[in-house]
Amino acid sequence: MKAVTIIKREHRNLGAVLTCLELLVRDIGEEGRQPDFRVFHAILTYLDSFLDRYHHPKEDEHLFPALRRRYPESEAILQRLEAQHEDAIEMTDEVRRALSTYEFAGDDAFPAFRDLVMKYVSFERDHAYTEEREVLPLAREHLTEQDWESIDAAFEDNEDPLFGDTRRKEYGKLASVIANLTPAPHGLGAKWKSRS
Predict the structure, then answer these.
(1) N or C end of the chain, less CB within 10 A?
(2) Residue 150 pLDDT > 80, yes or no?
């Protein structure tokens, strides 16, 4: 059941990125910080590249079909989570469009961007919670050792490009951008300047 450990680790990593995104948006709204749009673009690239292209597809293609076969009663929750995976792609695109509008239209566009970010953050947190509290226990209970062998193999090839031991070459720069551009105390970068 290595896949369970990997999924939970990826959810923790996602949680760290979502918290960073949430705090950066709050700093703009509550502290009057000037946004560094490169940080937001880097975070959205990570969410799109890893979450929507690696993490969710592995669940859809390996974990969920196996659970369906062994425990058909899981169909409703699996359908809901698969639909949320599709919704997540659309929401990421919405946040990216709102970010572009904010970047070019200025402060008047910030509230719409902030609201979409907060909606997206809440959505992803709830989604991960449902997987961990409802689906993973069912998988542990109903899947066989043979099922887990193929699922584990799929997820072991799914190393997180930002947090993994061996970062994929194409994501190494992205990891540095997020860590170095995100201002302290949320990241390694310098504090943003106040608007005043």
Answers:
(1) C
(2) yes
